[in-house]
Amino acid sequence: MTTSAFPTISTPAGEIPATAPAWNRQRHSQMPSHRYASVYDRVEVPLVQRDWPTARIEAAPLWVPVDLRDGNQALAEPMDPDRKRRFFELLVAMGYKEIEVGYPSASQTDFDFVRLLAESDIAPPDVTIVVFVPARRDLIERTVDSVRGIGNDVVIHMYTATAPTWRDVVLGKTRGELSQLISAGARDVLEFTDGMPNVRFEFSPEVFNLTEPDYVLELCDAVTELWQATPERPVILNLPATVEIATPNVYADQIEYMHRNLSRRDSVILSVHPHNDRGTGIACAELAVLAGAQRVEGCVFGNGERTGNVDIATLALNLHAQGVDPMIDFSDIDEIARTVSHCTLMPIHERHPYVGDMVHTAFSGTHQDAIKKGFAEHRRRAAATGEPENEIDWRVPYLPIDPADIGRTYDAVIRVNSQSGKGGIAYLLATEYGLDLPRRLQIDFARHVQAHTDASGAEVTAAELFDLFEATYLDPSGPVQLKDWRSGGDGASAVTDVTLMCDGRTVASTHRGIGPVDALCAALEEMGHRIEVLSLTQQSIGSAAVTYLEYRSAGRTGWACGRSDSVLAASMAAVMRAVNVLEQLQGFVGVGVHADLAGDHPEHSAVGVDDERGPLDRHELAEQATFDTELRGYLAIGVREQRIVEILDVGEFGLFGDRVGADADPVRPGSGELGCQIPEMAGLLGASRGHCGRIEEQHHRTVGEQAGQAADRARLIRQFELGNGVTRLEGCHGWLRYAVCMAARRPRSGRIVPVQTTATQAPGSDAGSSLAVTTSREDFRALAAEHRVVPVTRKVLADSETPLSAYRKLAANRPGTFLLESAENGRSWSRWSFIGAGAPSALTVRDNEAVWLGTAPKDAPSGGEPLAALRATLDLLQTEVVPDLPPLSSGLVGYFAYDMVRRLERLPELAVDDLGLPDMVLLLATDIAAVDHHEGTITLIANAVNWNGTDERVDEAYDDAVARLDVMTAALGQPLSSTVATFSRPAPEHRAQRTVEEYTAIVEKLVGDIEAGEAFQVVPSQRFEMDTAADPLDVYRMLRVTNPSPYMYLLNVPDADGGLDFSVVGSSPEALVTVKDGRATTHPIAGTRWRGSTEEEDVLLEKELLADEKERAEHLMLVDLGRNDLGRVCRPGTVRVEDYSHIERYSHVMHLVSTVTGELAEGKTALDAVTACFPAGTLSGAPKVRAMELIEEVEKTRRGLYGGVLGYLDFAGNADFAIAIRTALMRGGTAYVQAGGGVVADSNGPYEYNESANKAKAVLNAIAAANTLAEP
């Protein structure tokens, strides 16, 4: 039996139903469908006389967008006031006349927005404002207060869940008790709105579709009676399918039952609000309108809880496609989509009906051809009738509406990828560039397009399509050049003079009695280049001309094109393109680089190979490649003129090769960016496509066993240049001797060509002393010409040093120093540890303004808003990455406290700030020691700042940096006293901020808030305090041993006088966000189990965790939160969940972890990525802002560091920040540790208390052990 490639999927293996026809071989599956009841068993479906099946929609219902309330609640990051206002203005511009704007009793932001509408004129007088409120007296009063003074019509929308499950499980009320609650709420609405004639009323029996029909009818009639509904002042009865559980026809029956049986039907506006749990929200809404609904609530593009609310855009454009005016304007769908995405921070799916980028497109060749013909026929009909194209009947195949109706252009319809047809390709070239390709040329070019898109794996735009066409057919350059031509006369008297040049030789000839094109072909044949013209098609495009030439030579048929200001000149250019294409298919250049790994022989010889037969056999090439030292690694790149055709590797494991193919992208002369242009270069960088031999950790073994690192290969490829007949290839590995090989332009003889080789030593190898400075003065001057911050480095052998010993020698707990380390998954140590040996200054916050402690950088801003000062500082010191340096070589290192969020969001200020910590401390890290655990070396880095670029200042900065390197080097050479110590592990004696009873009360309060719809999750915490006289380094040592994590840190924060204010010691498993080379990454962590004592126990616990629905649901929520956070700063469409919900094991626990990435949008920085994700959802809750408001209500003191982040922002635009958990703040003999956990609807108070205490124990235990350290 074949093993399944998907072991987690249980292929249905039950019986084939006895009633199944022979052609249906589906079997019963293992899905537990028996757990779910049919809708007919869950609720009575009324039997009605159905008119809806034969009804027609002939007019649009009243559309009511709820994006600003329901949609906003469902955002991981609700809209701030600016985005909310922008969305409201969009809705007004589109023509919506009734807009639900918020839930003012639930959020201060919503309350303030409603007040903005009351106190300004941004709402036109014909727009009705709707506000949402539950049937609770206090909340109704606050809601009415929010709308006082609004001149527009206002609707107070009161709701209560009425279905049996909600009554029994959530509310704990009988039918009668719930009826009394709703009636009381309706009376409260009347009472508080007395004297407000512009107010009307709306009632929603939430989960209407699961409520007994007689009961919901009873409730609705009672409310309309209380509110005294009349035709002049009708009541809105909104009937939501809050959770879809049936086919749409059932919902239609329920709506028609209400439509027929309401007691005051003529005084009621019957409204519906379908959700989309089953994916049938659109159908439910359409059938509901057929059944009598007059009003539809939904979101513009279907945002909302779970799978979303009904999608108004689709509903409206469905009407448009049936000839019914939707009464809403969608004529610029792209502007609408951009605005909605900006406001919600959520992308719109590419396949979203009508709106997505790909819905008015075609990739399939048959579809493209049909659409092309449809457009042509559409234009013919318009021309024949004299009507505008946008007014005549629409009959184009595959497209339900004219894309122009919604602001899309025809060129967006045809999309080209590896599956595209020639018709679509030709259509784009015709519509965009006026090129009318002959049929056979369409077929030929389609092959080139398919090869290109197969290689890239992506579609091409019209512009890229034209670039490919131009490169394939239009470029006449090459070794054979038409220097001049002249023609006169006609017929038998025609005379054409042709002057050609090839390989430096000029040949002139005269031809009589034939036309210029034939004359050129004859002249070429005299030089040995026979071209037979098979067809010649000429076309005028505006003031230019294009010629399409089909030719044959040596049995090969091909196409070439020419473009010029005259038809004749274009034809001559097409012939020259043809001959140069043929010329480029002859000859081969091999370029070699030899890496001497032993380092004993810096001299090398290599060969270039030329053979007019085409590429040499790879074994033949290897045999002709000779070296005067042992052949350890050889790279040969086959080049035909400016096309890479073959990559050959000769190494210890044999001869490997990847053939690129004749259609590889041309190399741009002098570009130096080969690796970016040839997709097959991925094989060279370690992707292993087509290679034999061993691939290890994506390091391709072609330059010897130790030298095949992908980064080195990438740098080597980036420096490959092809231009002016010179091929240059140079390596740049820091410890590998490398050679620069230059090959002359290939001759035509076919012989082996010697290659001149210049040996170059590795950086820093020119001096024999261990105190050599890797960065020479000349290198420094060159870097200072283009960089503000320039690192001066020295690498020393330090295989007997540990990060802790180096820290003691270089930092010794001085203010302004730090130690950063990492243990991957709590087990193996990563390559680098970083020691901050000195910081001349620190950017911090005092009295809500930015302040520099110490000597601030010249021109750095001081005072003003802290984040603005930080941005200005990063701009001031911005520099490019210097190659071959460790990941952290300069930047700002420190923390953002949790309370920094008050500068990003408006939160109530209820908690006491008893510790008075700065919201931000960032050390200017000028002197850094990077410990390389793999090499056993330490790279000492002294950053110099070039302020004015003068030679004197540059040399002064260099000398100062070298002097600091000398100080660090000398410090490393000093002996240390013994650090061997005895210790014990006593139980920590600490003080908790809350008792079990107090913490339980907090949890119960938050559970009530969650059940009331305030939030999905809230993360409360409490602080623990412990007396200690331990050295912060000793606490770090114990924490490092007992709880190794991906982020470990020791940070010594200075005070205003230069002394030590406090130290931060932590071991965090979780990053907030990292940014590297413009790519942002976050790793949501949620879902935990303690590690087992054996591998078998670990495996069982992993399975248990992966099967835990609650843990997985919480994890999914945080993944969505991370995706939305990155969506605020990343280019649309680039945010991806790359590794969802996998297990990572740490020293004591295992977690569910996912990876979310995105590419920063233009103009966005690493700091933008940090603030977009700040604070972490795992430490606040969801929705984030509302959760933080609730946290402020229940926590005694400000959090300070807890829930903030610690890490760095470098000056090259990168960042790496860990969430500050499992962290101690040590100040004045006291250690402060804070911990908490996520509260959801079913949380238990005592359990959550223990959870917070257990999380704090890892750090408290380390402090207790550090207190016992003593010399033996």
TrEMBL record:
<keyword id="KW-0479">Metal-binding</keyword>
<dbReference type="InterPro" id="IPR036230">
    <property type="entry name" value="LeuA_allosteric_dom_sf"/>
</dbReference>
<comment type="function">
    <text>Catalyzes the condensation of the acetyl group of acetyl-CoA with 3-methyl-2-oxobutanoate (2-ketoisovalerate) to form 3-carboxy-3-hydroxy-4-methylpentanoate (2-isopropylmalate).</text>
</comment>
<dbReference type="Pfam" id="PF08502">
    <property type="entry name" value="LeuA_dimer"/>
</dbReference>
<dbReference type="InterPro" id="IPR005668">
    <property type="entry name" value="IPM_Synthase"/>
</dbReference>
<keyword id="KW-0100">Branched-chain amino acid biosynthesis</keyword>
<dbReference type="GO" id="GO:0000287">
    <property type="term" value="F:magnesium ion binding"/>
</dbReference>
<dbReference type="InterPro" id="IPR006805">
    <property type="entry name" value="Anth_synth_I_N"/>
</dbReference>
<dbReference type="InterPro" id="IPR005256">
    <property type="entry name" value="Anth_synth_I_PabB"/>
</dbReference>
<dbReference type="GO" id="GO:0005737">
    <property type="term" value="C:cytoplasm"/>
</dbReference>
<comment type="function">
    <text>Part of a heterotetrameric complex that catalyzes the two-step biosynthesis of anthranilate, an intermediate in the biosynthesis of L-tryptophan. In the first step, the glutamine-binding beta subunit (TrpG) of anthranilate synthase (AS) provides the glutamine amidotransferase activity which generates ammonia as a substrate that, along with chorismate, is used in the second step, catalyzed by the large alpha subunit of AS (TrpE) to produce anthranilate. In the absence of TrpG, TrpE can synthesize anthranilate directly from chorismate and high concentrations of ammonia.</text>
</comment>
<dbReference type="GO" id="GO:0009098">
    <property type="term" value="P:L-leucine biosynthetic process"/>
</dbReference>
<dbReference type="InterPro" id="IPR013709">
    <property type="entry name" value="2-isopropylmalate_synth_dimer"/>
</dbReference>
<feature type="compositionally biased region" description="Polar residues">
    <location>
        <begin position="1"/>
        <end position="11"/>
    </location>
</feature>
<comment type="pathway">
    <text>Amino-acid biosynthesis; L-tryptophan biosynthesis; L-tryptophan from chorismate: step 1/5.</text>
</comment>
<dbReference type="GO" id="GO:0004049">
    <property type="term" value="F:anthranilate synthase activity"/>
</dbReference>
<feature type="binding site">
    <location>
        <position position="275"/>
    </location>
    <ligand>
        <name>Mg(2+)</name>
    </ligand>
</feature>
<keyword id="KW-0963">Cytoplasm</keyword>
<feature type="binding site">
    <location>
        <position position="309"/>
    </location>
    <ligand>
        <name>Mg(2+)</name>
    </ligand>
</feature>
<protein>
    <recommendedName>
        <fullName>2-isopropylmalate synthase</fullName>
        <ecNumber>2.3.3.13</ecNumber>
    </recommendedName>
</protein>
<dbReference type="Pfam" id="PF00425">
    <property type="entry name" value="Chorismate_bind"/>
</dbReference>
<dbReference type="Pfam" id="PF00682">
    <property type="entry name" value="HMGL-like"/>
</dbReference>
<dbReference type="Pfam" id="PF04715">
    <property type="entry name" value="Anth_synt_I_N"/>
</dbReference>
<dbReference type="InterPro" id="IPR039371">
    <property type="entry name" value="LeuA_N_DRE-TIM"/>
</dbReference>
<dbReference type="GO" id="GO:0003985">
    <property type="term" value="F:acetyl-CoA C-acetyltransferase activity"/>
</dbReference>
<keyword id="KW-0432">Leucine biosynthesis</keyword>
<comment type="similarity">
    <text>Belongs to the alpha-IPM synthase/homocitrate synthase family. LeuA type 2 subfamily.</text>
</comment>
<dbReference type="Pfam" id="PF22615">
    <property type="entry name" value="IPMS_D2"/>
</dbReference>
<comment type="subunit">
    <text>Homodimer.</text>
</comment>
<comment type="similarity">
    <text>Belongs to the anthranilate synthase component I family.</text>
</comment>
<dbReference type="GO" id="GO:0000162">
    <property type="term" value="P:L-tryptophan biosynthetic process"/>
</dbReference>
<comment type="pathway">
    <text>Amino-acid biosynthesis; L-leucine biosynthesis; L-leucine from 3-methyl-2-oxobutanoate: step 1/4.</text>
</comment>
<dbReference type="InterPro" id="IPR002034">
    <property type="entry name" value="AIPM/Hcit_synth_CS"/>
</dbReference>
<feature type="binding site">
    <location>
        <position position="70"/>
    </location>
    <ligand>
        <name>Mg(2+)</name>
    </ligand>
</feature>
<comment type="subunit">
    <text>Heterotetramer consisting of two non-identical subunits: a beta subunit (TrpG) and a large alpha subunit (TrpE).</text>
</comment>
<keyword id="KW-0822">Tryptophan biosynthesis</keyword>
<keyword id="KW-0057">Aromatic amino acid biosynthesis</keyword>
<dbReference type="InterPro" id="IPR013785">
    <property type="entry name" value="Aldolase_TIM"/>
</dbReference>
<dbReference type="InterPro" id="IPR000891">
    <property type="entry name" value="PYR_CT"/>
</dbReference>
<feature type="domain" description="Pyruvate carboxyltransferase">
    <location>
        <begin position="61"/>
        <end position="334"/>
    </location>
</feature>
<keyword id="KW-0460">Magnesium</keyword>
<keyword id="KW-0028">Amino-acid biosynthesis</keyword>
